[in-house]
Amino acid sequence: MSNFKISTNKDKLDLNVIHDFLSNRSYWAIGRSLETVKRSIDNSICFGVYDNSDKLVGFARVLTDYSVFAYIMDVFILEDYRKQGLSKQLIDAIMQHSDLQGLQRFMLATNDAHELYEKYGFKRTVIPEKIMEIVNKPQ
């Protein structure tokens, strides 16, 4: 185990670090407003990854109805902390969270982390012709 810890305590989250990464450095949320980031955190189960000085170094959130469905979103580890197994620890924490057990469906979208998620049983959708979406520009 490393010197890092994962917490779902929203009071510990550093909103400025999360907003900066998402709105400036992620490929999926460029330009997302601080208000949108705050509202998304307020309405999700959030996972913060912290170093031994309690600095936020990673984040993920899960949107769920707590019974049937969950969607993993906004997963990141800050650049200086990558290649230490933190993304695996983060996904472990999500998949083991007590409120996310027994769900019928977990979903996520990724451009580049298929190998990580496949270790947890995620597969490309079997029925892409049934999946529909509306994609709007981030706010």
Verbal overview:
By secondary structure, this protein is α+β, with helices and mostly antiparallel strands. The chain has helices at residues 15-25, 34-42, 86-96, 114-118, and strands at residues 5-7, 45-50, 56-64, 69-77, 105-107. Strands 1-2-3-4-5 form a five-stranded mixed sheet, with helices on both faces. The protein is built from four helices and five strands. A hairpin with a 4-residue loop joins strand 3 and strand 4.
Q: Find the structural class using helix and strand composition.
A: alpha+beta
Q: Output the radius of gyration.
A: 15 Å
Q: What characteristic shape results from the CA principal axes?
A: globular
**Average pLDDT:** 93
Please give the count of helices.
Answer: 4
The profile of the biggest β sheet is: 5 strands, mixed
How would you spell out the order of helices and strands?
A: EHHEEEHEH
Low-confidence runs (pLDDT<50, min 5 residues)? Answer: none
The CA-CA distance between the termini, in Å, is: 38 Å
Q: Please give the share of residues in helix.
A: 25-40%
Number of beta-strand segments = 5
* Range of strand content: 15-25%
Task: Write the SSE topology.
Elements: E1 5-7, H1 15-25, H2 34-42, E2 45-50, E3 56-64, E4 69-77, H3 86-96, E5 105-107, H4 114-118
Parallel strand pairs: 4-5
Antiparallel strand pairs: 1-2, 2-3, 3-4
